Amino acid sequence: MQAIITRNFRDVDTTSPKVLLTNILNDDGSLFRDHCWVEITREVEGLIPRSNKGRLIRFSAKFKQYKNYLTGEKKQTLKKIRTI
Question: What is the mean pLDDT of residues 35-53?
Fold first, then answer.
């Protein structure tokens, strides 16, 4: 997979802060998601750009299904990002 990692954060005052990935593509080049918030792990933290300019990364990850609490729609997100 590949995505653009940004310097946009969420849940920074919690035990599991997240960073924004955009334009997430599967290995075949098809769009997986237009954006996704992923937990900041040690591996991910070292890739966060120091400026507001995004950075292209390639990685492998597991998929996690969840239900949107507003719409009830089932979606997928990423977890356990590795092999960056």
Answer: 91
